[in-house]
Design goal:
With about 140 residues, the chain is mainly beta. It contains no helices and nine strands. A hairpin with a 2-residue loop joins strand 3 and strand 4. The protein starts with a strand and ends in a 5-residue tail after the last strand. The relative contact order is 0.29.
Length: about 140
């Protein structure tokens, strides 16, 4: 099931869809994606952005590193970006932008996957999200 969130960053903000989840320790991880439609001359393309949503179910704040990869069907995964943040006890942060990639509006499915690591521990499994859309 996908959850759609709207980020009121600016007039061009797109809806963000969050996909499957995973966890690492007491932190739940969701991969999220948006695909905002743009134009290069007359050619439409989508600006695909990967996000991560993190929820700490523990009783202490934790430092969390996270990264995102993207691919189109049939191609290899390519790293989009990585960062880190602190998630307070019982708090949810995000969706936090991890990276952006431009792609033609051609109906090809774009997939992203994110994972997280708490305090230098083990990496979580992959949390996926995908889209074929070019939103306006």
């Amino acid at each position: 099931m996908l959850t759609v969130l709207t980020i009121p960053a600016n007039a061009h903000a797109a809806a963000i869809a969050c996909g499957g989840g995973t966890s690492t320790g007491r932190v739940a991880v969701n991969g999220c994606i948006s695909a905002q439609r743009q134009l290069h001359g007359q050619a439409p393309f989508k600006e695909v952005t990967a996000y991560v949503k993190l929820r700490n179910t523990g009783t202490r704040a934790v430092n969390v590193s996270y990264e995102a990869y993207w691919r189109t069907s049939g191609f290899d995964w390519t790293k989009l970006g990585s960062s880190r943040t602190t998630v307070g006890a019982g708090m949810t942060v995000g969706p936090l932008e991890v990276g952006t990639k431009d792609r033609a509006c051609d109906g090809i499915k774009v997939e992203i996957r994110v994972r997280a690591q708490v305090g230098g521990g083990s990496w979580s499994g992959w949390a996926p999200a995908s889209t074929k859309q070019c939103q306006t």
